[in-house]
Structures are given as C-alpha cells and as structure tokens.
Write a structure and sequence with these properties.
Two copies of one chain form a homodimer. Chain A is mainly α. Chain A has helices at about 5-15, 20-25, 40-50, 75-85, 95-105, 110-140, 150-180; strands spanning about 20, 55-60, 70-75. Chain A has a three-stranded antiparallel sheet. In chain A, a hairpin with a 7-residue loop joins β2 (about 55-60) and β3. In chain A, α2 crosses α3 (about 40-50) and α6 runs antiparallel to α7 (about 150-180). The radius of gyration of chain A is 20 Å and the shape is elongated. Chain A starts with a helix and ends with a helix. The interface between A and B is large, with 69 and 69 residues. The structure holds a DNA duplex (28 and 28 nucleotides).
DNA sequence: ATCACCATGTAAGCTGTTACATGATTAA
DNA sequence: TTAATCATGTAACAGCTTACATGGTGAT
C-alpha cells in the first residue's frame, strides 16, 4: 500500500532519524543520485507515513515559525521496509532520454552526431570521477561489513562507477562507428 | 516547447509514418525498452503535435468506429527534432528503485539480501539474452551505416547489452561481498 | 543589514496510469 | 462464436514540479 517514495523515506529514516528538511537534503545530494524528491512531496508523505504508524515524529527545538520534528522508524515501519526489500521491486516506467537520442543519431549530420555523443561522454566521465572519489572515501574508512549502512553506500556507489564505465564504453563504441 | 514524449513521437515518426496505434505498439515492444508510453497519452499528444504543425495526419481506410490516421513528419517537425538532438538533453528526475534497494541491503538478514540480489541478477541476465539476440539479428542483416535508422537500432541495443553486462557485474560484485 | 541556511507548509498545474467506451476485421 | 488485433478516444486519479508563503538563526 505504501508508495515508492514512502519506502525511499523509510529506507533513509532506517539509517538515521531525520527531519523533513534533512530528508529533502538527502534527496538532493547523496541519495538524490538514485532517488530524487522535493520537499513539497516529502512533507505530505511523512504525514501519511506517520498516520500509517510506520514512523513517529518527535518535536524538537528548531528555527522557524512551525514546529520542527525529527522522525524515526517504528517496528511496523521496519517490517514494511523489510517486506519490500525481500521481493525485488517491479521496475517502474522506462523513460531513457539518452537512449532515445542515440536511437535517433542517424537523423543528424555526422559532425553533430559526434558532438552529441561526445557531450554525453563528457557528462558520464564527470559522473565517474564523482562516484570514484566518493567510493575511495568510503573504502578509506575501512571495508564495511554487510550489516552496516556503509555497506549500502558502498554498494550504491559501486553501481554508479560500473554504470558510468559502461556508459563511457557505449559512447566510445558509438564514436568509433561514427568516425570509422 | 515540445514535451519529451512529443520528441519521442517525432523520433519514431521520422523513421516511418505511423498511426497512433502503431506508435503505441512501438512504445510497448521495441522502443518501449527505453521509452514507454500508453495510447491514452499518445493520442492527445499527436493532436498537439499536429496543431503545432510538426506532423500531419492523413486519413486512411481502417477498422473501427473512428477515422484512422497515419502521421508523417513535416519540415518543421524535422527541424524541431534536429534542434533537440543537437544539444544533449537535461537528464530528468532519477528514481532508481534497484539502487535504492541495494542501498538498503544492510537492513536485511544475509540470506534474504543474497536472494534479492540474485533475483535482480536473473532479471538482468534475461534482459541481456533478449538484447544480445536482437543485436545479432541486426548485425546479421549487414553492418548499418550511421545515416540509416538501423544504425540507431544497433546503437540502442548495444547500449542495452553493455548496460545489462554492467548490471550483472554489479550484482556479482555485491554477491561476492555478501557471501564473503 | 544582507545573505545563506534551517525548517515547514500549501496550491496550481503538468505528466502519466488505470479504467471505461466503441466497433470493425480476421483467425481458430 | 469467441477471441485477438486494429483503431481511437475520454475520465478519474495519482505522482511530481514549480511557485508561493512564513519566519527564525548565524555568519559576513
């Protein structure tokens, strides 16, 4: 019954009790690399999760006109998250703009096609340096064991590295053909 | 001004004039692997594209209570598509359920974590056989030159193969860690 | 004083999904 | 005759984005 956004929030709160603001930050920078959401979507969803008894918010001292709340996972929330993780999620709708553009490369003059692929390559190369740096940061703190959140971080960022490498290899393959 | 769905439809119509029904089919099976949409979204968008002068529909004989129309690209539509392809599209929102689950692997007992990753691995292996089969089918018809739609097909499916291989390698890396 | 950041909320609008609706043709 | 396929459309709803709204704290 819980939405994917709800489960994403449970996954974050499971790691660390957090305010809506902190969760919104996470869904921009670290977790946002693979699951993004805005605060306007997060706050109502947190209210729903609390109504469903999956999280509880405790009021804390904070800045601003409205009360600040820090949420933590309940036992029911932990069950819900584990149930979702136990079965592989059905992949949602696919809307891959990059593949759509590569699918249409034949429609461009040769030089512009090369320019398009090169700029995608640049983007992936940048992403790779970001992921690789993040990854060596994690590894430098010691190899995480599979029952700690840091293992999830390492797994996610490793996927980012492997994916970016594959994307770059793809661009190189296409460039070879276009120049060849 | 045109939506991404609109550009996806232009990209398909650029290859081959098509009815809304045929476009909806494409967005299930071949093109649907990287850009999916339903007929309920496609028909109104086709009307909008025609209003904007990017495609024109010609009534043809066909089954059904309403007139059947086959759409083809106009010169303005070709310009619009080329303009979009010339600059690399801004990546839309990221909502990667698989990475979210891997990020949360630490939260599961070891055996269930292994089960989850194995089932993702199975899914990617299936995808790989589909892409690989599709790819050898294209290559068997002769190497396409970069100015033919078949080159786009080959580029897209090559990306599918490389991506699936990277996904499998990722799963294997995680499984290695989980099994110790 | 001005700016960035902390912190939470609502409203309008666009995008996308599911479901409802209609009817002809062709193959089992 | 029953089902699949061709072919098009609308309506209700869910999900997400952009923009509006408020106000406190701490640094420059």
């Amino acid at each position: 019954v819980t939405s994917t956004l709800g489960l994403a929030l449970l996954a974050l709160v499971a790691r660390q009790a957090a305010t809506g603001y902190e969760l919104a930050r996470s869904m921009e920078r670290p977790a946002g690399f693979f699951y993004a959401a805005r605060h306007s979507q997060i706050y109502p969803e947190l209210a729903r999760l609390q109504d469903a008894g999956l999280i509880v918010g405790e009021e804390i001292a904070g800045a601003g006109p409205r009360p600040t709340r820090r949420y933590r996972l309940t036992d029911a929330g932990a069950d819900e998250l584990r149930r979702w993780l136990a079965t592989p999620a059905a992949g949602g709708p696919v809307r891959d703009v990059k593949t759509l553009q590569f699918y249409s490369l034949w429609f461009l003059p040769r030089d512009e096609a090369i320019g398009l692929v090169e700029s995608w390559r640049r983007r992936h190369a940048e992403a790779l340096t970001v992921y690789a740096a993040e990854r060596s940061g994690i590894v430098a703190d010691g190899d995480p064991t599979p029952d700690t959140p840091r293992f999830g971080n390492l797994a996610a960022v490793t996927g980012g590295v492997l994916g970016a490498q594959a994307d770059i290899a793809w661009c190189d393959w296409v460039l070879d053909r276009l120049r060849g």
